[in-house]
Specification:
With 150 residues, the protein is α+β, with helices and mostly antiparallel strands. The protein has six helices and six strands; from the N terminus they run αααββαββαββα. The strands form two sheets. It has a four-stranded antiparallel β-sheet. β1 and β2 form a beta hairpin. α4 crosses α5. The longest helix has 15 residues. The protein is globular and about 45 Å long. The two termini are 24 Å apart.
Length: 150
């Protein structure tokens, strides 16, 4: 579970900070209480599909491009597929049941869809609650999620 928490923190950091190097990322993770090595950072970057892009200032920064399914690493997709137990819809709410300790990873996968019909999602230990704009959109999102599991 420490790996999932570390990877979630990595995603949060690259979304909120302009990080140019693995050393900067490692330092920020250490300040957040994670014990990491350069090898760990490198492996996580690959698993999470994190890439470097040029900024307007001419520097580079780490980012994740969620606009395309191909940018989502096979590992994260595989974790989602193997951790989901059941997907249910109730009105505009989607409930994803996972094996214990896997809801954060499943929630990260839902967030990575970058679907404008998703208002947000909340992950616990073994449950993710996804809130869609409408009942019909919840049905559509549920079908997308179920295809990822099949």
């Amino acid at each position: 579970m420490a790996r999932n928490a570390r990877q979630m923190k990595m995603v949060e950091l690259i979304q909120t900070c302009e990080i140019e190097t693995q050393e900067e990322l490692a330092a920020l993770l250490r300040r957040a209480g994670f014990k990491v090595t350069q090898a760990t950072i490198s492996r996580d970057i690959k698993e999470l599909g994190i890439i470097k892009i040029a900024t307007d200032s001419g520097k580079q920064k780490y980012t994740r491009d969620y606009s395309d399914f191909t940018s989502i690493s096979a590992k994260v997709s595989g974790l989602f597929k193997h951790s989901v137990v059941k997907i249910s819809v109730a009105g505009n709410l989607i409930v994803i049941k996972t094996i214990p300790g896997s809801a954060n990873m499943a929630g990260m996968m839902v967030d990575s869809l970058n679907n404008p019909s998703i208002l947000g999602c909340v992950a616990g230990d073994d449950t993710v609650l996804v809130i869609a704009k409408t009942n019909d959109e919840a049905d559509e999102i549920s079908e997308i999620l179920k295809q990822l599991v099949d």
